Amino acid sequence: MPTSPEAAARGAMSDRMDLAGRLFAASSVIVLTAGIFMAFVYAPADRVQGDAQRILYVHAPMAWLAYMSAAFLFVGSVGYLWKRSATMDRLARSSAELGLLFTSLTLLTGSIWGRPIWGAWWEWDARLTTTLILWFIYLGYYMIRAYAGDRERGARHAAVLGIVGMVDVPIIHMSVTWWRSLHPEPVVINMAGPNLPNSMLATLLVCFIGFMLLFGHLIIQRMQIESVKDMLEDRELSSLLRGETVSGQPRSRPDALAPDSSSLIEGA
Amino acid sequence: MQAEAAFIQLSNVYKRFGARVVLRDVSFALAGGEAIALLGANGAGKTTVLRLAATLTRPTRGNVMAFGVDAWAERRQVRARIGIVAHQPYVYRELTCRENLWFFATMFNVADRERVVSAALERVGLTERAGQRAGELSRGLLQRLNIARATLHEPAALILDEPDTGLDAVGREALSSVMRGQVDRGGSLLFTTHSLELALLVATRVVVIREGRIELDANAKHIVGADVAEMMIDAAESVEA
Amino acid sequence: MRRIGALIWKDLTVEFRGREFVGAMAVFALITIVTLNFAFDLSGEQKEASGAGGLWIAFLFAAMLGLGRSLAIERERGTLEALTLCPIDGGVIFAGKLISNVLFIAVVQAISLPVFAALYDLPALSPMVLAIAIAGSLGIAGLGTLFSALVSTTRAREILMPLLLFPLAIPVVIATVQATTLELQGNSGDAWPWFNLIVVFDVIFVTMSYLLFDVVLED
């Protein structure tokens, strides 16, 4: 039962998380402002692609974050099945949601970039295909949770997909690479390659750091929201078991919130 | 088999499904050689108690112990020692009676399967229908097969959810002899029923449950049949109200 | 071992008497193969490639049809609960189900391959094609059996099953289609690496599903 010592520990924990989240947010604002300036003013236009190449500074970090979410999702899923800890489940939940967001943005920015450069919205190369499949896995993860009906079962089943999916992603990438090698090579730009001029590389680096700080902020934010949600459910459960509420009463009454929880929600 | 004091023990168990709390602070223990009849109106939480004892679900709060270990955490080991008759027939419709029993005897790693299966068929009076598919059996005969299935491995604890449903006189006779046999050989028995007659015939203890709470837990010898009947009628009325 | 044997015997007997899966799966596979004739050009130069692709689309869809129901039906009838109440590991139930499912898919393949070979005049009856077919089904059924148990608890299993199975089975699909194409083109030498790859995928998928099956069966 969520008696005082545990709640106090959770409070201290959330205070630290809160601080970290704010630090991430502030620093990402600063770094990303610099990043935007560098991307549009400092970095030169590409000799071949012109200004269109500037989308790289958003696209590459998005793709990186999409795969970083995958790593977090894997860790969260394994951790949940192993320890059955609610925190691990919250980590998995939050990273899957961010993963869905960032794969969507990766695919979107990639298509926008691909259109003027390749003359096509889409190429079936290994990187694109794998990202698309990753998007489907995140979607499946989301749907499992939505349809599970029971919170614990949803967490468990989603964790199974989290593990199977994340083990599968590199395998998918490999198999698509081998498959494509039999076909004419798509005209993929060797981005991130060492032939990027220093000014571009620096800009890319700044954008990477900025977006990773943003990611840090977002994942902490998500986990705090999930934590409040869980706390709410626990409180609701306790009062339900004590027989204080009539069954079937609507959830989320404002007075069921923890006194300190308003500060957690505020930042979202 | 009578090493432990309590075969199955529920301590302060709560169980909820969604916004509905089905059990509130339920505690009782079932020892070897004991037979508990769980009485109450429909929806009082009887089946949930049985499912908890049978390791089919875990409590929201509180704990369920079986044979001295946590029932859910050690469910594999616990399941080897319990037998269950639930509402759903745990048999394959396409298999014959004998095949069903043979299959589950294998799953429970029962030694000398041929003999055990034949004995189980005999016990519930299905020997003549051994070759008939379970899907072709009537409700009562299916229930008898179900009872035979649950007792194949001589479980230390036998859990029966309204086992008398659909049984005719012969079936009820077979059932009560299985139930008494379970108690006589030192095993324990936990069952629900709407038949007061069956409850008083077999039970050593009667537990009445009402709206998820235990209302009465008494030695069967110490209570007069009429008391229990009254409680049951009470419970039934409160649900309808 | 004896228990896995009994589980397989049970599935085969139930299927033989009840005819729930194999018939429906086979008809589905055949109708897909026939329909593909109108979707692809299966007479031209590239017919080996499109034929192999079409064949595996038929197999994948038929497999999904059967796999999606294999545990859902047991859950609906209460027999899955009966199985989980037996003192056996989830892995044992998984092994039994997996082998039965592979056998069902193999029967479907045994029915559709000759039809495919005859309709499209392709050498689809070689031992190598059969080996590819079996190996491919093992990987698909490995994942499919796990997901079948997973989606059997939900309301939306018809949507969730393909959403989970298709993306994750892509490595097996790619490898089997490549191997089958090369084999149909008479290029067995180049088909071998792809076949070996299928076996590697099988090992990964089956092991992973075996280990996780217990978790899915918890309730």
List the helices and strands and how they pair.
The complex is a heterotrimer of chains A (268), B (241) and C (219).
Chain A (H helix, E strand, L loop, with lengths): L3 H39 L13 H28 L2 H33 L7 H22 L3 H30 L17 H45 L18 H6 L2
Helix pairs in contact in A: 1-6, 2-3, 2-5, 2-6, 3-4, 3-6, 4-5
Chain B lengths: L5 E12 L2 E12 L3 E5 L6 H8 L7 E6 L2 E2 L4 H5 L2 E4 L11 H11 L5 H11 L15 H12 L6 E5 L7 H16 L3 E5 L3 H7 L2 E6 L2 E7 L5 H16 L1
Parallel strand pairs in B: 3-8, 3-9, 6-7, 7-8
Antiparallel strand pairs in B: 1-2, 1-4, 4-5, 9-10
Chain C lengths: L1 H17 L3 H18 L7 H31 L1 H6 L5 H31 L6 H25 L5 H12 L1 H15 L3 H29 L3
Helix pairs in contact in C: 1-5, 2-3, 2-5, 3-5, 3-6, 3-8, 5-6, 5-9, 6-7, 6-8, 6-9, 8-9
Summarize this entry quickly.
Chain B is an alpha/beta fold.
Write out key terms for the chains shown.
heterotrimer; B: 4-stranded antiparallel beta sheet; C: 219 residues; mainly alpha
Mean pLDDT of chain B: 87
Oligomeric status: heterotrimer
Most extensive interface between two protein chains, with residue counts: A-C, 31 and 29 residues
Q: How is the biggest beta sheet of chain C arranged?
A: none
Q: Give unreliable regions of chain C as ranges.
A: none
Q: Per the principal axes of the C-alpha atoms, what is the gross shape of chain B? A: globular
How many beta-strand elements of chain B?
A: 10
Please state the CA-atom Rg of chain C, rounded to the nearest Å: 17 Å
**Structural category of chain B:** alpha/beta
Structure commentary:
The complex is a heterotrimer of chains A (268), B (241) and C (219). In chain A, helix 3 (86-118) runs antiparallel to helix 4 (126-147) and helix 4 (126-147) runs antiparallel to helix 5 (151-180). Chain A is mainly alpha-helical. Chain A is built from 7 helices and no strands. The termini of chain B are far apart. Chain B has helices at 46-53, 75-79, 97-107, 113-123, 139-150, 169-184, 196-202, 225-240; strands at residues 6-17, 20-31, 35-39, 61-66, 69-70, 82-85, 157-161, 188-192, 205-210, 213-219. In chain B, the strands form 2 sheets. Chain B has a 6-stranded mixed sheet, sandwiched between helices. By secondary structure, chain B is α/β, with parallel strands linked by helices. Chain B is built from 8 helices and 10 strands. With 219 residues, chain C is mostly helical. Chain C has helices at 2-18, 22-39, 47-77, 79-84, 90-120, 127-151, 157-168, 170-184, 188-216. In chain C, helix 6 (127-151) runs parallel beside helix 9 (188-216) and helix 8 runs antiparallel to helix 9. The mean pLDDT of chain C is 90. At the A-B interface, helix 6 of A face strand 2 of B.
